[in-house]
Amino acid sequence: MNWRVIFLSMACRFSAIIRKYNAVETDAPQYYIIDDTTIEKTGFHIEGISPVFDHVKHCCVPDFKLLVLAIFNERSTYTCDMSLHRENGKRQDRGLSEKAQKMQHRKQSNSKPYPCSTTIKMSKQQRKKQRNP
Hints:
- By secondary structure, the chain is of the alpha+beta class.
- The chain is built from four helices and four strands; from the N terminus they run H-E-E-E-E-H-H-H.
- The model has no long low-confidence stretch (mean pLDDT 71).
C-alpha cells in the first residue's frame, strides 16, 4: 500500500469536510510548511540510520531526519507528505565505522527495496525538488 497516497487523500478529505461543514469562509491565507526534524534512536544497527547534528541538543545523535510537508490555515494543520532522510557525512560514510556499517546490512534480501528505502538515500534538497517540479 502506498502511504503517500493515503496521506494526500486524508488531507484532501479533511479539507473537503472542513469546507462542507464550516459555513464561515475566511480570506485568511494558507501556508505550506516544510519542516525537518530529528527522530532520535538509541543504536546504530537500524538500517539507514546515521549520526545527525541535533540543533536542540547541540551534539550528534544517531537518528533520521523527518521531512514533512504540511498545510496550515488559521484553524488547523494537516500533513500532506513526509519522508525519512539520512546525512552522508564528510567522507560519504554516513559518519559510521566500518563495523557499524556492516551491522546495518547483515541480512540478505532477495526482494526489491520498498520506495521508502530509496527516498532515505536522497538529500532533502532533491526530495523538495521532486515534490515541487
